[in-house]
Amino acid sequence: MFWRKDKKQDSQAAPVGVIEPVAEKHPEPSLPPREGDRPGETWLSRLGMGLSKSSTKLGQGIADLLTKRKLDQETLDGLEELLITADLGPQTAARVIADFSQDRFGKDLDDNEIKAALSESIARILEPVAVPLAFDRRDEGPFVVLVCGVNGAGKTTTIGKIAHNLQCEGKRVAIAAGDTFRAAAVEQLKVWAERTGSVFLAKDAGSDAAAVAFEAYEAAKRQGVDVLLVDTAGRLHNKSNLMAELQKVIRVLKKHNDNLPHATLLVLDSTTGQNAHAQVETFRDMVNVTGLVVTKLDGSAKGGVVIGLADRFALPIHLIGVGEGIEDLQPFKARDFSDSLVGLQR
Amino acid sequence: MFESLGQKLGKVFTGLRGKGALKEDDVNDAMREIRVALLEADVALPVVKAFIETVKTKAIGQEVIASVTPAQQVVKIVHDALVEMLGSETAELKFTAPPSVYLMVGLQGSGKTTSTAKIARMLSEKQRKKVLMASLDVYRPAAQEQLRQLGAQTDIATLPILAGQKPAEITKRALEAGCLEGFDVVILDTAGRLAIDEEMMAEVALVRDLAKPVETLLVADAMTGQDAVNVAKAFEDKVGLSGIILTRVDGDARGGAALSMKSVTGKPVKFLGTGEKSDALEPFHPDRIAGRILGMGDVVSLVEKAIETVDQNEAEEMARKFQKGQFDFNDLLMQMRQMQKMGGVQSLVKMLPGLGEMASKLDEAGVDDKIIKRQEAIILSMTPQERSKPEILNASRKRRIAEGCGMTVQDVNKLYKQLQQMQTVMKRMKKMGMGKMAGMMQGLMNDKDKEIMAERMQAQGFKGLPGNGGDFLGANPFLKKK
């Protein structure tokens, strides 16, 4: 059992089989503490930037559709197709359009009014799930977050960003390297731990992920850490053996405390299409996911699938990833998302 | 992954079945369903529209051929249109004078590094190429280390990592090493990038100009949604592609992205990533995938897999026993293990025509490969004598076996009964003779399956067909190969 707790150059390698108490960690000096007024603006502009392509496309599409004055069936069909191209899926798109056209059918509406109304319909679906996650201790141990998802969704990067945010809030964070399968996954996470000044807890590649989580909790608790983030290997939801492995991680964590993990986050890639439904359903049923993180929203993908997800599963969407930088993780805001999606500038 | 779409279309055509002629209303109904199914399968909207138009014009007004149902006719039309859309033949990798340079591009997390290692391993193992892998990903933490580790695992050379080098510098170094050290192929694994990130797209264009790759492969996730068209188009415009690798095909995404990207770039899907291990890479056969989309199963893949994994001698031995009507627990054990080598019950069922829906039922019923594992455990708890002479099993032996494998006596009984049933079937087969076997097989399939299968087999150069007195069943592990 080789536990590593590298962060600063002066830290010594832990002796075999011993989990060393780790010296007080502070955020790296090179990382400026977050200014209080940042999130609002940054979030909007970043998402705006990310969604700009889709916004202009949708916005332009809406403008093109409005050659006629009255909102007729043809316009509605066009709007529905625009939503489909934003990955809402045929069913959700039809529902949003039905909601939107109620009371408006046959009326005179201009470009901006249509956008605002469409955004309103979408925001109404998203508002109940736009719930921030409070990383506050609930018992004597650290607040434990298990992060899971399919391969390549962005779990490790998300953990790095969450750790950074928490460190900036003055919380002490530990990261456990539960991806013991993929080549260099541990090394990748270690870099993030170093960048964010988090305690890094890992075992050799190939070890049992459940054992990593179990021992990481012990170590994190002993060291008085506030939040423990547990990374897991990417797994496709239809692989029953891999899902069983994830269930084992949770089962083993519960041996410490029945409330563990306090949160189980599913990381979803916004480029994912309708398969996101199957992902959320399976992960929710198998490992009791408590909330979602939607990543890669800075690309041209619109992430419209979350609207259908919100409607169907009502799972909170806590955070969104809008870039590769350490600060590119933002709380999810329904209105901003829906405005950006339809290309509305307020 | 395409089964779900196949199921949906299956339902559409059940509605069409039994009607006498291809009326416009029927076709329109079917097309509406196909449109929704394709959209739910993440095929991009413009592609769906074009596809529907093609199929509709082809279908309406077609003369109804006697002895074929309208459903079969529409299936054929949809199938052909899908094949056409996916590309008409298998695309092989190209080579130049050594070293041939391959460039891997794609979004973040699409599976570039894993695919790089898979292609390298395939080239080195199946085509005896000397391959060098180099990671140009200087952004994601430990990305270069990941490729290095994969190289070490698969025994493929990787370019030594020099910290602080830019992608262009690494490219030059890789090309130099490729020339000097006599590599046949140099694979450049680039960092994931967003198609709308001008700076990063310019960077990969620079690498392309330096390396002049013979293959530029876009690695894309089978789960990708509508954005697949934008991504594929952007990479095609700014970098230029020679092909596409579709990853995570082992998931349950319906993979409409494959159709979208193919039709928007015109570039073939060359490979499918079908697992996390470095040998989980399959060539893409458009006609097979179209068949799978339609839920017709993937018989050719099944046959190839069987040939690849089943030991010829074992199969012949088994066939001899079959013919004698002898079949004991040793044979059952061997059979189970072969089945697992071929990917387990689930994947076998999914590949068989007409059984696409059964696969999901198996899922629901909780039938999975664990059952086989348990049955294996039962057999392993038997003495050699018991295995070869099942009839000596008595109550006390059964109890001992059950305890030995942690199962109940009922489970042991169940397995014994299964064996007896197989023996009965075999004895019957022996009476009928092998010739009638094929006839029996034929009886199990409906006309649609036969038609599709016949077409498929011919396309793949299989001469024999069930019913033609041929030897399709020769690929069956339990029958003697002629």
Tell me what the structure shows.
The complex is a heterodimer of chains A (346) and B (482). Chain A is an alpha/beta fold and 346 residues long. Chain A folds into two domains: 43-129, SRP54, nucleotide-binding domain (Four Helix Bundle (Hemerythrin (Met), subunit A)); 143-334, P-loop containing nucleotide triphosphate hydrolases (Rossmann fold, 3-Layer(aba) Sandwich). Chain A is built from eleven helices and eight strands. In chain A, strands 3-2-4-1-5-6-7-8 form an eight-stranded mixed sheet, with helices on both faces. In chain A, a hairpin with a 7-residue loop joins strand 7 (317-321) and strand 8. Chain A is elongated and about 65 Å long. The model of chain A is unreliable at 1-44 and 50-54 (pLDDT under 50). With 482 residues, chain B is of the alpha/beta class. Chain B folds into three domains: 3-86, SRP54, nucleotide-binding domain (Four Helix Bundle (Hemerythrin (Met), subunit A), Up-down Bundle); 100-293, 3-Layer(aba) Sandwich (Rossmann fold), CATH 3.40.50; 299-432, 434 Repressor (Amino-terminal Domain). Chain B contains 22 helices and eight strands. Chain B has helices spanning 3-16, 24-40, 45-59, 70-86, 112-126, 143-154, 167-180, 198-211, 228-238, 256-265, 286-293, 299-309, 312-324, 329-341, 344-351, 356-364, 369-380, 384-388, 395-405, 409-432, 434-444, 447-459, and strands at residues 100-106, 131-135, 157-158, 185-189, 215-221, 243-247, 269-273, 281-283. In chain B, strands 3-2-4-1-5-6-7-8 form an eight-stranded mixed sheet, with helices on both faces. Chain B is globular. The interface between A and B is large, with 47 and 48 residues. Chain A: Residues 316-329 form the SRP54-type proteins GTP-binding domain. Chain A: It catalyses: GTP + H2O = GDP + phosphate + H(+). Chain A: InterPro entries: AAA+_ATPase, P-loop_NTPase, Signal_recog_particl_SRP54_hlx, SR_rcpt_FtsY, SRP/SRP_N, SRP54_GTPase_dom, SRP54_N_sf. Chain A: Residues 1-45 are annotated as: Disordered. Chain A: Part of the signal recognition particle protein translocation system, which is composed of SRP and FtsY. Chain B: This is Signal recognition particle protein.
